[in-house]
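Hello,

Following up on my earlier ticket. Below are the two sequence lines again, exactly as submitted.
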Amino acid sequence: MKTKLTAGLLTTTLIVLGVAACGGNGGGGQGASAKPKVGLITKTETNPFFVKMKEGAEQAAEANGLELMSAAGKFDGDNASQITAIENMVAAGVKGLLITPSDTKAIVPAIKKARDAGVLVIALDTPTEPQDATDALFATDNFKAGELIGQYAKAAMAGKPAKIATLDLAPGITVGQLRHDGFLKGFGIQSGDPAVVCSQDTRGDQAKGQTAMENCLQKAPGINLVYTINEPAALGAYTALKAKGREKDVLIVSVDGGCTGTKAVQAGQIAATSQQYPLKMAEDGVKAVATFAQSGQKASGYTDTGVTLITDKAVTGVEAKDTAFGLANCWG
Amino acid sequence: MTVTEATLPRRLISTPVAGPLAALLLACLFFGLNTGQFFTGPNFSLIIQQVMVVGTLAIGQTLIILTAGIDLANGAIMAFGGIVMTKLAVDSGLPALLAIAAGLAVCAGFGLVNGLLVTRISLPPFIVTLGMLNVVFALTHIYSAEQTVTNLPAPLTFLGQTFRLGQTNVTYGSLLTILLFLLFAYLLGSTAWGRHVYALGNSPEVARLTGIRTRRLTVGVYTLAGFVYGIAALLLVSRTGVGDPQAGQTDNLDSITAVVLGGTSLFGGRGMVLGTLVGALIVGVFRNGLQLMGVPSIYQTLITGILVILAVAVDQLSRRRNR
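Thanks for your patience. The regenerated structure is below:
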């Protein structure tokens, strides 16, 4: 009796859920199978950067007559979910895979298997290690993104002695390292320069950015320039500075160009940010898969998807666009 | 004493595994009807590969939950075990088999510590393993210096190799996982030790009065679970081909999900380890099937969540009827 009840309940729900899942997808499984498939695997499903990327992929897939499949890890660094997604998409018969690798080394064996099965694999935003583990890479030049805000900061400080805090990503993650190194080069200093008085990891998180800035201010109250890995970290730093009444005399520079971040540039909370273009990465990626599906020609090498310095307080010698441009091209 | 013995078999039989099994079969039927690629040997082999790590973790989790405990640290312990195995073999140049043995021992050691804290200081398992989750997570990142370990020697990736079964390539790891489930189904269902575990979960006091050495049994269960997490670590390493310090961060909850979906009660004393296998497969089948249909992965999370609540609701209803 009880077993029947159990089975009955589960049965009903499953059927309802199954139908709901199909309905929600507009019946993606049926009918559309004639179109070649392209898979997009992002680090997470929730970060606005990847939401924009997916949007770009959807538009481009529509325009190029492809069917888009998408998946994501549960958290940044979730390698297992990305491997599972690659396997399932290869099983579903995708022509090409676009992936932002969460773990740049650990994903490599799974990518190799997909390529061995004849699938074109393109890394978006983040290169794998080694970079040639994928057929091609469409990404921001993260070193240049850092360099631009470094040059900007150097000019904006106008010879004032700098006391710099760097709010970084996390150890061992290439993107963070490249931006950090680019910033130092743009500012014209070496790693280990005494002008950098505090360096903290934030994992690109606003709350952690705030905590890091609070601690840096405890350590070195005279900080007058803050490099941040991304805009959430920058806004966290701004909150910490504001609590100390220091928000007016400290220069914050950042990377990303998300809409929230660009608005913060407009409001003067962040002085300048290097804007990157996830939508373009996905668009170019889908187009490359469409070309491959039609002609068998594989994309290769690295394609720079561009980066622009956004600020309303332009300085001489550093090319920049204003926040009107930034807001028209921002993501999230 | 006689009361416990009389009710035990009945409780075992009345365990709601039939429901989860029906759910699994229906899900398979649904996906089979909706996508052409689902009902193939290679696809089933893939699904088993994709659930073997969480499935194996869930064996240990089942043991602990049967004693009315819970383990929040299992994914972290597995990640640490994986890093120990790979780093010792690659960076320290230890023979691969020794490195594997060391990884297994470390995982069992963490299980032992958990068990001792639960029994000797009478801390709630939730608290012990919550603390241990953070401790082991940190140790993993400190020891690995956040670096993924690559270029693994062959014995570490052996379980990821395949053999042919008819037209399908099956990994040795999948086979090992199934064998482990069968072994624990036997141990729990047909040995005195298994009966003691159920008795402990039903009522520690009654179990103690019947002469079961409950503390020693509990420590044994946590240590054995730790050892099983070590096997999960080897499976993980062989599946991914790397030692990954970021691994397993949601696997604690994923393993609890598999246990609960498999009809095991979080209150202890009721459930079957084969139900856990079914629970893990339900998650894997939905993930694979929805992906094949082109449904974004967030819907899989949505459906898993609903299924968990449903499974517990069914458990509660059946307990009420039992009274």
